[in-house]
Fold:
Amino acid sequence: MRQIISTVLGIVSSVFGLLVALPTLTYDNSIWVIQMLLGEFSWIPGLFGVAAVGTGAAGRQRSRWGIVLGVFGLIWSLVPFWQTRQAKRLNEMSMRRALGEDYLRRVPPAQRARMRQRRWSFETSFISASPLKDAYTVERDIVYHATPQRPLLLDAYKPQVPPAQGDLYPAVIVVHGGAWRYGDKGEVFTAHNQYLASQGYVVFDIQYRLSDEAAYPAPLEDLRAAVRWVKRYAPAYRVDANRVAFLGRSAGGHLALLTAYRAHEAGAEGTEVCAVVGIYPPTDLRLWYAPEESDIARFLQGTPQQQPTGYAEASVLEYTRNDLPPTLLAQGYRDDLVMPGHSELLHNKLSATNTPTVVLRFPWSRHGFDAFMPGLASQSVQYDIDRFLAWAFYR
Structure:
C-alpha cells in the first residue's frame, strides 16, 4: 500500500513539475491558468515530490518508481525558486538604473512603512496579502463617461489611512485586460485595488468600451475621459490632480501606455499622468499573427494587411519620445501570449530618451502571473511597484 501511495504521489508531482516546465499548452481552456498557478506556487508540486520520496524510502521495501518520479517532480518544481535570486538582482538593478541609486530618499517615512517589506515570504503564500477591510472603503458603479453604447462605470477605493504627505492622496487609475474584447473592472484583481488603497492611494478601477461594442479608438477616448473625470472630481476624493498614475494589465496595459504617451496631442488636453505601470502589455500590435476574427483584428477592424496604418497608430512604440511619464513594465518570460519582446522593444526605444523606464523580468512567469497576490512573482512585482509609485508620486 505504501509503495502505491508513493507512486501516486510521484506521478502527481511529475505531472505538476512538467506543467511548470513546459510552454503553455493552450489558451483555449483552463490549462494555462493551471500552469500559471503551478509556476507561482511551485512549492505545491514540490511538497508532493517530497512526500513521494519520503513515503517511498520509508520501510524495508522501497518504492523505486515513487522515489524517481518524486525527485523528477521536485527538481522541476524548484526551478522558479532557483531563478528568483537572479531575478531579484536584475530587477533591483533595473530600478536603480532608471530611478537613481537613492530613489527612495524623498519618499515620506509614512509611505515607506506602508510598502511591502520583503519580495517574498513563505507565510504569505498561504494567506491573502490584501489588507484588512477597515483599511479602505469602496464606492461602486459610479458613472464617469456616457457613450452611445452604454454608460461607463468605475469603482473608487478610498484609503482609510491619512495621506503620507500633506492633505491630499495620489490616485491610481486601473485598467483591466481581456484582449480588448473581454473583462470588467474588479474581477480577480479586486484584492490588488484594496491593497493599493491601503497604501494611501485612491484607486479608480474603470470600465472601457470593448471591441464588440466599439472599435479603436473608442477605448482610448474612454481612458482619456477617465483621467479628466478623476481630475475634475479630485477635490471630492481628496486627490492631488497632479499626482495621478495609470496601472494596466495586458490589453489594459497597452491602453494605459497609449493614453499616457499621447497626452500631448491635440484633443487630449487634461489627460496627462505622472507615471504609468504596464504589466505584460502589448506595445507593438504589428508583431502579432492577426487573422480575421481574431481579437486584435476585431479591435482594429481588420488584419494588418487591411489596416497597416491602424496597427501602427495603435502601437505604443510609435510614441516614444523625451519627457514621457516614468514607466514600469513587468513581464513574465514564459509568457507566449504577449511575448517578452513587447516590453523589451519598448524599453530599448525609451532608453534612447530621458524617460525613466524600469523593466521587471520574471523568468518562470506566464501571462496573468499577478492574478493571485500570494504568488511568487506577484509578491515580488508588488514590492517594486510599491517603490516605483512612491518614487513617482513624491519625487
The domain at 84-394 is CATH 3.40.50.1820 (Rossmann fold). The chain has 13 helices and eight strands.
